Amino acid sequence: MGKTKTIRLGNRLRYPITIVRLLKNPGDTVKKQDALMEYSFKWYKEVGDTIRGETWEEEQTTYADWSSPSDGTLNAWSIKEGQVIKQDGPCVLIDEDCSHEIQFQGLCAICGKDMTEANWAAETRDTERAPISMVHDQTNLTVSSTHAQKSERELQKRLLESRKLSLVVDLDQTVIQACIDPTVGEWMKDPTNPNYDSVKNVKTFQLDDGPHAVVRKCWYYIKMRPGLEGFLKRISTMYELHVYTMGTRAYAQNVARVIDPEKKLFGNRVISRDENGNMYSKSLQRLFPVSTNMVVIIDDRSDVWPHNRPNLVKVTPYEFFKGIGDINASFLPKRQDLLTSAPSTNGVKKAEKPADKNAKAVATGKDTDEVTKEQLEEQQSALEKQINERPLQLLQEKQDKEDEEAEKATGHSDDSASSRSSSPPPQRHKVLLDDDRELEFLEKHLTQLHKAYYASYDQKKSKRTIGEDVPDVGNLLNNLKAKVLRGHQIALSGVLPQNTDIYRSEIGQQITSFGARLRSTVSKEVTHLVVNTSQPGTAKLNAARRYPHIKVVGLEWLAQCFTEWTSVNETPYLYFKEDANNVGAARQAEESSDDNDEDMGGIETGNTAPKTPQQKMNKLQIQLPPRGDDQDDDDADDDEDGLLPDEVEEGQMSPIDGLKTFNWGSAEDELAEFLASGSDDDDDDEDMDEEDEEDDEDFAPPDESESSSSSEESSASRKRSRSRSGSPATRKRKLEDDVGDGEEDGNNDDEGEENSPAKRMRRMKSARGSSLRHQYEAAPDLPTPAVTGDEDGVEDKVEEEGQNFTDLDEEALAADLEAEFAADLEAEFNSA
Amino acid sequence: MFFLHNLERRVLLHPSYFGKNMTELVTTKLVKDVEGTCTGDYYIIAIMDTFDLSEGRILPGSGMAEFTVGYRAVVWRPFKGEVVDAICTSVNQHGFFSNAGPLSIFVSTHSIPPDIQYDANATPPQFTNHSDIVIEPGTHVRIKIMGLRTGVGEMFAIGKIDGDYLGREMVWCRKCTKAVGDRMCLRTGTAALATKKKNDSDRHMGNTNGVDQSSSSIELTST
Q1: Domain architecture of chain A: domains with CATH
Q2: How far is A470 from chain B (nearest CA, A)?
Q3: What are the backbone dihedrals phi and psi of residue A798, each rounded to the nearest 5 degrees, phi first?
Q4: Angle at Cα A565 formed by Cα A561 and Cα A570, nearest 5°?
Q5: Domain topology for B2-76
Q6: Which chain B residues are Cβ-neighbours of A132 within 8 angstroms?
Q7: Where are the beta strands (DSSP E) in A500-642?
Q8: Which portions of chain A are predicted below pLDDT 70?
Q9: ipTM for the assembly
Q10: Do A109 and B94 touch (CB under 8 A)?
Q11: Chain A nearest C-alpha distance from B63 (Å)
Q12: CATH 3.30.70.330 is the classification of domain B83-169
């Protein structure tokens, strides 16, 4: 059963040695530590009188035995008696009884011997013969590299026969999202809840996991990504599926049971953090130690696969429970990719700390066990926090509050509002939206990859060049991806912090992996400038304007390209289209940057094309403060009027059907009418009231439709109605506010404390936007915005300021502007 | 193998328990502390009775009372070469894991008869000879222990099922000498009652299996 092993003399002997006698002959059975031969070596000993210093060295000859390091039968000697050996070399061949290729907990699984015994005859321990752990659910079972090769060849053969590949599937935020917020459970039981429909398909299980009382026996809510069942079913005909998650074993198994109740897809091929052997990264070598040629990974994070990037198909993170993030991410370093990081306040904050700690531990050389323990506690406390604070409930409450405000704003009169306040609002908006389409694209890519792989395999096979090695799926994947953005030259602006190496950044690597060339500066060759719409870098933006062929697009375009694996149409993502509507762009940029303040640096993302406009709407919806400043209000009117038609353009290719049915034509007329008469709007209270009544009447039909339509539509119409009409009551209150504190923006929304500086900034940026407009009005392909009403005067003033506007003296400028606005306002009021 | 073993243990009792029924409390605590543990050499399956309960001694400093209790317990010490009944818990390409009561035993493919092959395409993956023998999680198997290693408070074993009467636990009918399986049964008289089947509805998992076995041997030792 064993095999012949060549045994070397070892480097512990005093060379040169002379073989004196061979004690065993070929065919003899040898035991460990049996003396196999006798040898002699010469050395010098210092002899004489050490006290007087009369010493000399004398040659000594010592005889010693050389013992067998392993059990078996002696096959042949490669040395002869009398031979002088100068250095370490092969000495004897032994047919081993057992080569100890499979070991379990320090026992050889083949012969049952204890491998942990240290032995003076052998230089290495026997446990080192089987260093590779390659079984999913056990870390104690280890095998030797030859055995690993053997079993992997078998696997390969089996896969090729059934024309499959291996697919390693991540769980959290890739195929499912988990959360432990008990709110979900309550929503599931409450059919009247607006989120009832969304959480209807959420699966639950109870897990006794962790030492803390709160977390013990807590319920886990698992939301599968839309279309997961069909996806897995179809994919499993092409791929053998494995689960690889950073959750605990119990968690992994429960989730596997949820998504694969019959155990047909994953079988027992589930590996979790408990067996991974590493808290911070995943490695394909853990499962496929020899060759990863036939393995594909799908994961939402690429940084956890440091050594297996070629095999990775990166997936947009699935964010259904908003703000929850990945409940098992505490151990992982902070998410790096700006592109797809959802605005998950919880997740990001949570993840930050352990990463720091980890770094600290590395620096101080702290015991890793200790760190692990700390992180476990960290995760526990994070989980506890989720249970106690119920982020989802907060989110929904916030949403409800906004709905209520919106109701009030659109309410026709006081009595209807009061009657409504007694009963809960009939249409509450839900915070959980299930509109993810990632898996469709993913399935397409995986199918494509599988096809390419077996095409290449068949080709190789027909040429008979296929030996032991099969085509590498990593190369094929790279080839497929490299076609996607070939010919594009992309520069980034405002995406990465300055002084980062863009070529080594996550986003940079992704761009290059999709075949585009990454440029650090804007030059003639650049075809696309990708800007972070929330904080565009001015220098590159201005440079890009010099080349009309450069398409300036938002990050969402890039994300969409990565998702769809095609160079998607840039039009909905163009940055300057918004800019062309002057203040609109600035305002929008403003909106999202404001959001950022709120979201702790979370970045507005559009995962899919249809999602983008709708997300923006959500943002706006959250944003909307009742404006107090009339100047600003008018500005806002202007920009939102400019903005809205754009949104509709985008909306047409979105699944938001509500928007399509909305009668835009009438709204447009409405708008024109309103704007025409809006010139004296701010001067006269009564005038305005009349106006409003008119508006309200005209707006009645859309308002009614709103009550029965989706949240998107109503948010849009609400926005319009708020910005244009506004009930007399609210308008009055705003005015009062203005009079009350002339300088303050009298807004009473929930971002109040941060708001007034933010608003000032917004005004500033709108000023900048308008100046930009004037500057670039001549540009042929940019549609000129409709100049409306009375704010021209104001704008001119603003523009003067805007000309010498720089990033540095924003504060000072803001103060100046503030004063100017206040003065304007007062003058107007006085004249009225 | 099961033994009745006389053991001794020092039990600490908190001062709040001092009172009339202290002896009872000490015994309860002993049972709670000791039953089901592994000393490294053997598993303590059950405590039969206690004797020789010493007088309590208050420990200076903590105020706890220390009792020295002698007790008689059923212990299970697995031996190399012993044949045990176990239940398969998980299967992989290198072999399968099984539990004989508290003891986890691994059987590698080298120690499985060559006709029983690993089948990765089955759900769940299993070892099978493609006719009557299927080894998958939950299957009762009879294993011979080949090697044992003891750690602190735990033991591990390597087993084999290539040998006579080993492998999937067989089902005998009451009279005949033939096992329902591929092996001949030579122990007709003794094993006439053994009617365990694969996928038995009452699967014994974990500790219960060990206790099951203990009941039979308790009779042996105590008579």
Answers
A1: 1-97 (2.40.50.100), 163-389 (3.40.50.1000), 486-574 (3.40.50.10190), 577-832 (no CATH)
A2: 21
A3: -60, -40
A4: 30
A5: Dna Ligase; domain 1 (3.30.1490)
A6: none
A7: 517-519, 528-531, 551-554
A8: 1-2, 208-216, 330-376, 379-380, 406-430, 464-468, 536-537, 576-665, 667, 677-813, 831-832
A9: 0.76
A10: yes
A11: 29
A12: no
